[in-house]
Specification:
79% of the residues lie in helices and 0% in strands. It has a domain of 75 residues. The protein is mainly alpha-helical. Pfam families: TPR_21 (PF09976). It comes from Azospirillum oryzae.
Length: 214
């Protein structure tokens, strides 16, 4: 008797499954196809991205190599590459172009390039901060100390990877502005900071001593 009930129960389950498949089978198949297609599409997209990155990196290396024909040629090639490259690679090209301009003793033009990198929100924050630091460096001798110090202020924070150089530049700008007491204090703090690079600590100690004698 129990066998009969089991067979009836199995028939009912089979009928229910067939009914559900007829009702929802098309949607289930479509969903499965979309999952497979989506996975395949995502894999292809990742592969395409990696290929694009490789191609652009190779193009960047080629642009950098153009500087062997002269700084002007290098700047031209790097600027052309940056115009169509992804933001991070474009920034690297611009950093290289600015370095070539500095070699040609064109600090203002280099600083302008750094300003462009710093203002580009598509570029990684570390690149933007470095560009700000380098722009200030190029203007440190002639630019307005107060304005340049304000630009450096966010980079002096403990969380900034550029904090030691930013603090050293801030001290230099204070000395340029005639505030030797502030310069001495900043240099002394750098000299005593064991986390600062040894070169920075050595320079800071010498300058703190120098301004202390004033």
């Amino acid at each position: 008797m129990s066998d009969i009930f089991r067979e009836v129960d199995e028939d009912l389950r089979r009928d229910r499954a067939e009914h559900l498949f007829k009702r929802y089978g098309g949607a289930m198949i479509a969903a499965a196809v979309l999952v497979v297609a989506g996975t395949g599409g995502y894999s292809y997209w990742r592969h395409w991205q990696a290929q694009q990155k490789q191609e652009q990196t190779a193009a960047l290396v080629t642009a950098i190599s153009q500087s062997a024909q002269g700084p002007e040629k290098g700047v031209e090639a790097l600027s052309a590459f940056a115009g169509s490259a992804k933001p991070d690679l474009a920034a690297i090209a611009q950093f290289n172009a600015a370095a070539l301009l500095i070699r040609q003793t064109k600090p203002d033009e280099a600083a302008t390039i750094y300003d462009g990198i710093a203002a580009n929100s598509s570029v990684p924050a570390e690149y933007r901060d470095l560009a700000t630091l380098l722009a200030v460096t190029q203007r440190a001798e002639k630019g307005d100390p107060a304005q340049l110090t304000a630009k450096l202020q966010p980079l002096t924070a403990d969380t900034s990877p550029w904090r030691f150089t930013a603090r050293e530049l801030t001290a230099m700008l204070a000395a340029r502005a005639g505030d030797t007491e502030k310069a001495r204090t900043l240099y002394k703090q750098l000299a005593d900071d064991q986390q600062a690079p040894s070169g920075v600590r050595g320079r800071a100690a010498d300058l703190a001593s120098l301004y202390g004698k004033g």
